[in-house]
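RECORD TYPE: inverse folding
INPUT: C-alpha coordinates
STRUCTURE:
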Protein backbone atom coordinates (compact mmCIF):
# COMPACT_ATOMS: atom_id res chain seq x y z
CA UNK A 1 0.00 0.00 0.00
CA UNK A 2 2.61 2.48 1.24
CA UNK A 3 5.08 1.64 -1.46
CA UNK A 4 2.40 1.75 -4.19
CA UNK A 5 1.48 5.26 -3.07
CA UNK A 6 5.08 6.29 -2.88
CA UNK A 7 5.86 5.03 -6.33
CA UNK A 8 2.75 6.79 -7.69
CA UNK A 9 3.97 10.01 -6.11
CA UNK A 10 7.40 9.54 -7.59
CA UNK A 11 5.85 8.82 -11.00
CA UNK A 12 3.73 12.00 -10.82
CA UNK A 13 6.73 14.04 -9.72
CA UNK A 14 8.64 12.60 -12.66
CA UNK A 15 5.90 13.55 -15.15
CA UNK A 16 5.69 17.08 -13.76
CA UNK A 17 9.45 17.46 -13.97
CA UNK A 18 9.58 16.06 -17.50
CA UNK A 19 6.68 18.21 -18.77
CA UNK A 20 6.70 21.51 -16.93
CA UNK A 21 3.54 23.55 -17.59
CA UNK A 22 4.13 25.49 -20.77
CA UNK A 23 2.77 28.97 -20.24
CA UNK A 24 0.40 30.16 -22.98
CA UNK A 25 0.61 33.77 -24.16
CA UNK A 26 -0.11 35.31 -20.76
CA UNK A 27 1.49 38.60 -19.84
CA UNK A 28 3.99 38.46 -17.02
CA UNK A 29 1.33 39.53 -14.50
CA UNK A 30 -1.13 37.13 -12.86
CA UNK A 31 -4.88 37.65 -13.06
CA UNK A 32 -4.85 38.97 -9.48
CA UNK A 33 -2.14 41.50 -10.37
CA UNK A 34 -4.03 42.61 -13.49
CA UNK A 35 -7.27 42.88 -11.51
CA UNK A 36 -5.55 45.34 -9.15
CA UNK A 37 -5.27 47.77 -12.08
CA UNK A 38 -8.99 47.43 -12.78
CA UNK A 39 -9.89 48.24 -9.18
CA UNK A 40 -8.46 51.74 -9.70
CA UNK A 41 -11.56 52.63 -11.73
CA UNK A 42 -14.03 49.74 -11.43
CA UNK A 43 -13.75 49.74 -7.63
CA UNK A 44 -12.05 47.73 -4.89
CA UNK A 45 -15.45 46.30 -3.91
CA UNK A 46 -17.10 46.33 -7.33
CA UNK A 47 -18.57 49.84 -7.01
CA UNK A 48 -16.93 52.01 -9.69
CA UNK A 49 -15.40 55.35 -8.63
CA UNK A 50 -17.19 57.32 -11.37
CA UNK A 51 -20.85 57.07 -12.39
CA UNK A 52 -19.78 56.84 -16.03
CA UNK A 53 -17.71 53.69 -15.36
CA UNK A 54 -19.63 50.41 -15.66
CA UNK A 55 -19.93 47.73 -13.00
CA UNK A 56 -17.94 44.69 -14.13
CA UNK A 57 -18.23 42.52 -11.00
CA UNK A 58 -20.75 39.75 -11.72
CA UNK A 59 -21.17 40.76 -15.37
CA UNK A 60 -21.53 37.83 -17.80
CA UNK A 61 -18.24 36.15 -18.69
CA UNK A 62 -18.70 35.97 -22.47
CA UNK A 63 -19.76 39.61 -22.61
CA UNK A 64 -16.74 40.74 -20.53
CA UNK A 65 -14.38 38.81 -22.78
CA UNK A 66 -15.81 40.30 -25.97
CA UNK A 67 -15.54 43.86 -24.63
CA UNK A 68 -11.86 43.40 -23.67
CA UNK A 69 -11.16 41.89 -27.10
CA UNK A 70 -13.00 44.77 -28.82
CA UNK A 71 -11.16 47.46 -26.81
CA UNK A 72 -7.90 45.80 -27.85
CA UNK A 73 -8.81 45.61 -31.56
CA UNK A 74 -10.23 49.14 -31.50
CA UNK A 75 -13.71 47.93 -32.53
CA UNK A 76 -14.90 49.57 -29.29
CA UNK A 77 -13.24 52.88 -28.49
CA UNK A 78 -12.32 54.20 -25.04
CA UNK A 79 -9.12 56.10 -24.27
CA UNK A 80 -9.04 54.73 -20.74
CA UNK A 81 -9.73 51.11 -21.64
CA UNK A 82 -7.46 51.02 -24.69
CA UNK A 83 -4.55 52.07 -22.47
CA UNK A 84 -5.45 49.30 -20.01
CA UNK A 85 -5.66 46.48 -22.57
CA UNK A 86 -2.62 47.54 -24.60
CA UNK A 87 -0.25 45.30 -22.63
CA UNK A 88 -2.70 42.41 -22.23
CA UNK A 89 -3.37 39.39 -24.46
CA UNK A 90 -6.24 37.02 -25.22
CA UNK A 91 -5.33 34.66 -22.37
CA UNK A 92 -5.38 37.62 -19.93
CA UNK A 93 -8.83 38.64 -21.22
CA UNK A 94 -10.16 35.13 -20.68
CA UNK A 95 -8.74 35.00 -17.16
CA UNK A 96 -10.02 38.49 -16.30
CA UNK A 97 -13.49 37.74 -17.72
CA UNK A 98 -13.73 34.55 -15.64
CA UNK A 99 -12.40 36.37 -12.56
CA UNK A 100 -14.85 39.30 -12.67
CA UNK A 101 -17.83 37.15 -13.74
CA UNK A 102 -17.28 35.10 -10.59
CA UNK A 103 -17.53 38.10 -8.25
CA UNK A 104 -20.76 39.36 -6.70
CA UNK A 105 -22.62 42.14 -8.53
CA UNK A 106 -22.81 45.15 -6.17
CA UNK A 107 -26.28 46.49 -5.38
CA UNK A 108 -26.18 50.28 -5.81
CA UNK A 109 -29.83 50.82 -4.86
CA UNK A 110 -30.45 53.33 -7.64
CA UNK A 111 -33.94 54.86 -7.39
CA UNK A 112 -36.85 53.93 -9.65
CA UNK A 113 -37.64 56.64 -12.19
CA UNK A 114 -40.84 58.71 -11.92
CA UNK A 115 -43.99 56.92 -13.09
CA UNK A 116 -44.19 58.54 -16.53
CA UNK A 117 -40.52 57.78 -17.25
CA UNK A 118 -40.98 54.15 -16.18
CA UNK A 119 -44.01 53.92 -18.45
CA UNK A 120 -42.05 55.34 -21.41
CA UNK A 121 -39.24 52.84 -20.75
CA UNK A 122 -41.64 49.89 -20.56
CA UNK A 123 -43.29 50.92 -23.83
CA UNK A 124 -39.94 50.89 -25.65
CA UNK A 125 -38.90 47.63 -23.99
CA UNK A 126 -42.17 46.04 -25.10
CA UNK A 127 -42.04 47.30 -28.67
CA UNK A 128 -38.36 46.50 -29.31
CA UNK A 129 -38.45 43.25 -27.35
CA UNK A 130 -35.27 43.90 -25.35
CA UNK A 131 -35.98 40.94 -23.04
CA UNK A 132 -35.85 38.47 -25.94
CA UNK A 133 -32.06 38.85 -25.75
CA UNK A 134 -31.37 40.44 -22.33
CA UNK A 135 -33.82 38.00 -20.64
CA UNK A 136 -36.80 38.69 -18.43
CA UNK A 137 -34.93 40.31 -15.53
CA UNK A 138 -32.32 41.97 -17.76
CA UNK A 139 -29.73 39.62 -16.32
CA UNK A 140 -28.40 38.75 -19.81
CA UNK A 141 -26.45 35.58 -20.48
CA UNK A 142 -23.23 34.55 -22.21
CA UNK A 143 -22.20 37.31 -24.59
CA UNK A 144 -25.35 39.38 -23.91
CA UNK A 145 -24.81 42.02 -21.23
CA UNK A 146 -26.52 42.14 -17.88
CA UNK A 147 -28.28 45.54 -17.69
CA UNK A 148 -30.21 45.23 -14.40
CA UNK A 149 -28.67 47.48 -11.75
CA UNK A 150 -25.94 48.84 -14.04
CA UNK A 151 -24.96 52.49 -13.47
CA UNK A 152 -27.60 54.81 -14.89
CA UNK A 153 -25.22 57.38 -16.35
CA UNK A 154 -23.10 54.70 -17.97
CA UNK A 155 -26.20 53.07 -19.52
CA UNK A 156 -27.34 56.43 -20.85
CA UNK A 157 -23.93 57.15 -22.38
CA UNK A 158 -23.46 53.75 -23.96
CA UNK A 159 -26.99 53.59 -25.44
CA UNK A 160 -26.42 57.07 -26.88
CA UNK A 161 -23.07 55.88 -28.25
CA UNK A 162 -24.69 52.82 -29.89
CA UNK A 163 -27.28 55.13 -31.41
CA UNK A 164 -24.87 57.72 -32.84
CA UNK A 165 -22.36 55.06 -33.93
CA UNK A 166 -19.52 56.08 -31.59
CA UNK A 167 -19.90 52.61 -30.01
CA UNK A 168 -19.75 50.47 -33.13
CA UNK A 169 -18.72 47.05 -31.86
CA UNK A 170 -22.23 45.60 -32.16
CA UNK A 171 -24.13 46.83 -35.25
CA UNK A 172 -27.27 44.96 -34.13
CA UNK A 173 -27.50 47.01 -30.90
CA UNK A 174 -26.84 50.20 -32.90
CA UNK A 175 -29.72 49.41 -35.27
CA UNK A 176 -32.03 48.73 -32.33
CA UNK A 177 -31.06 51.98 -30.59
CA UNK A 178 -31.66 53.95 -33.80
CA UNK A 179 -35.28 52.82 -33.53
CA UNK A 180 -35.48 54.39 -30.04
CA UNK A 181 -36.33 58.11 -29.69
CA UNK A 182 -33.47 60.09 -28.07
CA UNK A 183 -35.90 61.32 -25.40
CA UNK A 184 -36.58 57.70 -24.36
CA UNK A 185 -32.93 56.87 -23.63
CA UNK A 186 -32.78 58.54 -20.21
CA UNK A 187 -35.99 56.85 -19.01
CA UNK A 188 -34.63 53.51 -20.26
CA UNK A 189 -31.32 54.03 -18.46
CA UNK A 190 -33.03 54.98 -15.19
CA UNK A 191 -35.47 52.11 -15.37
CA UNK A 192 -32.78 49.48 -16.10
CA UNK A 193 -30.49 50.91 -13.40
CA UNK A 194 -33.24 50.55 -10.79
CA UNK A 195 -33.83 46.83 -11.47
CA UNK A 196 -32.56 44.00 -9.31
CA UNK A 197 -32.24 40.37 -10.29
CA UNK A 198 -34.52 38.37 -8.01
CA UNK A 199 -33.18 34.95 -7.06
CA UNK A 200 -30.04 33.63 -8.71
CA UNK A 201 -27.04 35.91 -8.68
CA UNK A 202 -27.59 39.41 -7.39
C1 LIG B 1 -8.51 54.38 -15.91
C2 LIG B 1 -9.80 53.79 -15.53
C3 LIG B 1 -10.05 52.33 -15.89
C4 LIG B 1 -9.26 51.24 -15.60
C5 LIG B 1 -7.91 51.21 -14.89
C6 LIG B 1 -9.98 50.08 -16.12
N1 LIG B 1 -11.16 50.47 -16.69
FE1 LIG B 1 -12.50 49.27 -17.63
N2 LIG B 1 -13.61 50.88 -18.14
C7 LIG B 1 -13.34 52.19 -17.78
C8 LIG B 1 -14.33 53.07 -18.39
C9 LIG B 1 -14.41 54.58 -18.23
C10 LIG B 1 -15.20 52.24 -19.15
C11 LIG B 1 -16.36 52.70 -20.02
C12 LIG B 1 -15.82 52.93 -21.42
C13 LIG B 1 -16.84 53.50 -22.36
O1 LIG B 1 -17.88 52.89 -22.55
O2 LIG B 1 -16.58 54.57 -22.90
C14 LIG B 1 -14.72 50.87 -18.95
C15 LIG B 1 -15.32 49.76 -19.53
C16 LIG B 1 -14.94 48.45 -19.28
C17 LIG B 1 -15.64 47.28 -19.76
C18 LIG B 1 -16.93 47.27 -20.55
C19 LIG B 1 -18.08 46.98 -19.58
C20 LIG B 1 -19.44 47.06 -20.21
O3 LIG B 1 -20.43 46.98 -19.46
O4 LIG B 1 -19.53 47.19 -21.44
C21 LIG B 1 -14.96 46.20 -19.30
C22 LIG B 1 -15.30 44.74 -19.54
C23 LIG B 1 -13.83 46.68 -18.55
N3 LIG B 1 -13.85 48.06 -18.55
C24 LIG B 1 -12.91 45.87 -17.92
C25 LIG B 1 -11.77 46.34 -17.27
C26 LIG B 1 -10.74 45.48 -16.74
C27 LIG B 1 -10.79 43.96 -16.76
C28 LIG B 1 -9.76 46.29 -16.24
C29 LIG B 1 -8.43 45.89 -15.65
C30 LIG B 1 -7.59 45.02 -16.46
C31 LIG B 1 -10.20 47.67 -16.44
N4 LIG B 1 -11.42 47.64 -17.06
C32 LIG B 1 -9.51 48.79 -16.04
C33 LIG B 1 -12.30 52.62 -17.00
C34 LIG B 1 -11.25 51.83 -16.57
C1 LIG C 1 -31.21 40.79 -30.73
C2 LIG C 1 -30.74 40.76 -29.34
C3 LIG C 1 -30.81 42.05 -28.56
C4 LIG C 1 -31.90 42.87 -28.37
C5 LIG C 1 -33.31 42.71 -28.91
C6 LIG C 1 -31.44 43.94 -27.52
N1 LIG C 1 -30.12 43.77 -27.19
FE1 LIG C 1 -28.99 45.03 -26.08
N2 LIG C 1 -27.35 43.87 -26.43
C7 LIG C 1 -27.34 42.70 -27.12
C8 LIG C 1 -26.00 42.17 -27.16
C9 LIG C 1 -25.57 40.88 -27.83
C10 LIG C 1 -25.20 43.09 -26.45
C11 LIG C 1 -23.68 43.04 -26.27
C12 LIG C 1 -23.06 43.90 -27.34
C13 LIG C 1 -21.56 43.90 -27.34
O1 LIG C 1 -20.97 42.81 -27.42
O2 LIG C 1 -20.98 44.98 -27.28
C14 LIG C 1 -26.08 44.15 -26.01
C15 LIG C 1 -25.65 45.25 -25.28
C16 LIG C 1 -26.49 46.20 -24.74
C17 LIG C 1 -26.07 47.30 -23.88
C18 LIG C 1 -24.64 47.58 -23.44
C19 LIG C 1 -24.44 47.07 -22.02
C20 LIG C 1 -23.14 47.51 -21.45
O3 LIG C 1 -22.80 47.05 -20.34
O4 LIG C 1 -22.42 48.30 -22.08
C21 LIG C 1 -27.18 48.00 -23.56
C22 LIG C 1 -27.26 49.22 -22.68
C23 LIG C 1 -28.31 47.36 -24.22
N3 LIG C 1 -27.85 46.27 -24.94
C24 LIG C 1 -29.63 47.80 -24.12
C25 LIG C 1 -30.68 47.23 -24.82
C26 LIG C 1 -32.02 47.77 -24.80
C27 LIG C 1 -32.49 48.93 -23.95
C28 LIG C 1 -32.76 47.00 -25.66
C29 LIG C 1 -34.20 47.20 -26.09
C30 LIG C 1 -34.54 48.58 -26.52
C31 LIG C 1 -31.86 45.97 -26.20
N4 LIG C 1 -30.62 46.15 -25.68
C32 LIG C 1 -32.24 44.99 -27.10
C33 LIG C 1 -28.45 42.09 -27.73
C34 LIG C 1 -29.71 42.63 -27.81
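DESIGNED SEQUENCE:
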Amino acid sequence: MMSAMRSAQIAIAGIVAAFPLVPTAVSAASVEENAQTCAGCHGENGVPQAKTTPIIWGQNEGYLYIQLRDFKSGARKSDQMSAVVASLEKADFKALAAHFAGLKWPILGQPSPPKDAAKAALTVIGSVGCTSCHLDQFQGDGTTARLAGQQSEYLFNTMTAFRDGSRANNPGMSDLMKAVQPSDIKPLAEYLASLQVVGGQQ
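NOTES: Residues 2-18 form the longest helix (17 residues).
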